[in-house]
Amino acid sequence: MSNVPTHAGAVVFREDGGERQFLLVRSSAGTEWVLPKGHIECGETLEETARREVLEEAGAAVEILHPIGVTEIPSKQAVVAYFTARFEASVGSDEQRELVWLALPAAQEHLVHDNARAILGDADRTLGIQSGSDV
Fold this sequence. Notes:
With about 140 residues, this protein is an alpha+beta fold. The chain contains 3 helices and 7 strands. The chain has one domain: Alpha-Beta Complex (Nucleoside Triphosphate Pyrophosphohydrolase). Strands 1, 2, 3, 4, 5, 6 and 7 form a 7-stranded mixed β-sheet that branches. The chain is globular, with a radius of gyration of 14 Å. The N and C termini lie far apart (about 35 Å).
């Protein structure tokens, strides 16, 4: 499989009472918790795709901050580029997926796939490093 991204997504976070929480959404099949992501449309940048997918899947407006990394999903023949994204507002979604905000340990427990847990951990570390600057 090529390392060129076919999908983009985001690890969306917010601060609640001094605790960092992460957004998870139900998969389109409704069977598992996932990070918001989706296929790159013609003419879109990776950041635009990540922002659009978060909006479509979670009804959340976000600010894309930093690239985290790229991971493969062999079962879907997908290569996903992930970014950290700061939650700005709930704006509603046509997809009506269930969503949940969780602190890091609980969020990692909810995710089924090792690569998603790794991306979430990488995002948390990136945010911790950046917390002294513009995050």
